[in-house]
Amino acid sequence: MLKTSKNSPSADEIAEMATRGSDVSAYFTNEFKVVRPIRRVNLDLTHGFVRELDERAALLNISRQAVIKTLLRQALDQNPISRSSSKRARR
Fold first, then answer.
1. Of 9, 19, 59, 74, whose CB count within 10 A is highest?
2. Co-location of 66 and 80 in the same domain
3. Does the predicted TM-score (pTM) go above 0.70?
């Protein structure tokens, strides 16, 4: 694997090399992260709830959507469902 440096070719240059039939495998690590498609959901929220979210977003200088995602992630992390309890529930 080649180290990244100022002399490394750009993605377009690597693509051109591949098009010409050159071996470009040295530019890839074969390590990747699968990115799942985003699923959209609709939420019905009261005006007051949206106002609170907007206030929090303004305070943190982030979008309302980012606030919702952050708060949901924190809530899920604080109260994880253990595998042992879910096994007991299935019996």
1. 9
2. yes
3. no
Q: Does residue 55 sit in the same domain as residue 76?
A: yes
- What six digits make up the tokens of 69? 């995602």
What is the spatial distance between Cα 55 and Cα 59, in angstroms, rounded to a whole number?
Answer: 6
Going residue by residue through the chain (91 aa), what tens digit of pLDDT does each one get?
Answer: 445 556 788 889 989 998 999 898 888 887 888 888 989 999 999 999 999 999 999 999 999 999 999 999 999 999 878 654 545 555 5
Distance separating alpha carbons of residues 62 and 22, to the nearest angstrom = 45
Residue 43 in contact with residue 50, Cβ under 8 Å?
no
Q: How many domains does the chain have?
A: 2
DSSP code, position 8:
S
From the list 54, 72, 71, the residue with the least C-alpha distance to 63 is: 54
Give all strands (DSSP E) within 3-63, no chain letters. Answer: none
